TrEMBL record:
This is RidA family protein. Residues 5-142 form the Endoribonuclease L-PSP/chorismate mutase-like domain. InterPro entries: Endoribo_LPSP/chorism_mut-like, RutC-like_sf. It comes from the Bacteria. It holds the Pfam family YjgF_endoribonc. It comes from Pontixanthobacter gangjinensis.
Length: 153
């Protein structure tokens, strides 16, 4: 089954790839690896903002991380990389805007991690970090970056 067919089966439509908000490129491919810059969460076309443990619920945070994962896939496609060329999701880095006493960053990061497994199966399992931070760009609730192994075209 192609990844496009799998996305359709799951009822997933990828968002439009977001333009960079500063001086960087969204995707760099080098040596068979795609390095995807941190992606912010857009749900229903709106940026999910706020902090976990303050004004963003666990469920909203998990949905935001999933939205970041969808944006990662959208950025790959926008860079001309067919999703069927993904050999392995190597690593995700999740940054969670949270209060000092919020300790469920791994639960939030699961939104992106579980998406990768749903879409890619076993090759979607990856190494990961989940880090709490006091603030993210544009007051985003979550940001996720990725390293993905890509097969030659």
């Amino acid at each position: 089954m192609t990844i496009a067919a799998r996305l359709q089966e799951l009822g997933i439509e990828l968002p439009k790839a977001a333009a960079p908000v500063a001086s960087y490129v969204p995707v760099v491919v080098h040596g068979g690896m795609a390095y995807i810059s941190g992606q912010l969460p857009f749900v229903g076309g709106q940026l999910v903002t706020g902090r976990l443990g303050e004004d963003v619920s666990l469920e909203q945070g998990t949905e935001a991380a999933r939205a970041c994962g969808l944006m990662i896939l959208a950025q790959l496609e926008h860079a001309g990389i067919e999703l069927d060329r993904v050999e392995r999701i190597v690593k995700l880095g999740a940054f969670v805007s949270s209060t000092g006493d919020f300790a469920d960053q791994p639960k939030i990061a699961n939104g992106a991690s579980e998406l990768m497994f749903e879409v890619f199966g076993e090759i979607g399992k990856h190494a990961r970090s989940a880090v709490g931070v006091p603030v993210l760009p544009l007051n985003a609730a979550v940001e996720v970056d990725a390293i993905i192994a890509i097969a030659p075209a």
